[in-house]
Automatic annotation (TrEMBL):
Residues 77-104 form a coiled coil. Pfam families: HTH_31. Gene3D superfamilies: lambda repressor-like DNA-binding domains (1.10.260.40). It comes from the Bacteria. This is Helix-turn-helix domain-containing protein. One of its GO terms (molecular function) is DNA binding. PROSITE patterns: HTH_CROC1. Residues 7-61 form the HTH cro/C1-type domain. Keywords: Coiled coil. It comes from Mucilaginibacter arboris.
């Protein structure tokens, strides 16, 4: 994987946009965009900076065979499980509200017919 593709993949994985990465690295958005699109070549200090941002070594960032997301599978699974648990909680709360509304509606119908 080319470094540009790896940077984009890492950025998306962390939920960053180009503006976020530019701000975190202290460069302009257009300058970062040129790095990610391959227009600008990276110098070693910028490689170190980006590697540190993504908690990688410069070698890992430069290695075309290294998949930076492979090591994050367990973390990704944990995040997805947490998100699923939240959604299940929301569904449960909505079901309870629907039941309460149905019971209230049913009680109102009984009052009107009595």
């Amino acid at each position: 994987m080319r470094i540009q593709a790896k940077l984009k993949l890492l950025r998306h994985d962390r939920g960053y946009n180009q503006e976020d990465v530019a701000r975190l690295t202290g460069i302009s958005i257009p300058a970062y965009s040129k790095i990610e699109t391959g227009i600008t070549d990276l110098n070693y200090s910028r490689i170190e900076q980006l590697a540190a941002l993504y908690e990688l070594t410069p070698v890992q960032l430069l290695d075309p065979e290294y998949d930076p997301l492979q090591k994050n599978d367990a973390l990704l699974l944990k995040i997805l499980q947490e998100q699923l648990a939240k959604k299940e909680q929301q569904v449960s709360e909505m079901q309870n509200k629907m039941i309460a509304l149905f019971e209230q509606l049913n009680a109102n119908v009984i009052k009107k017919t009595a």
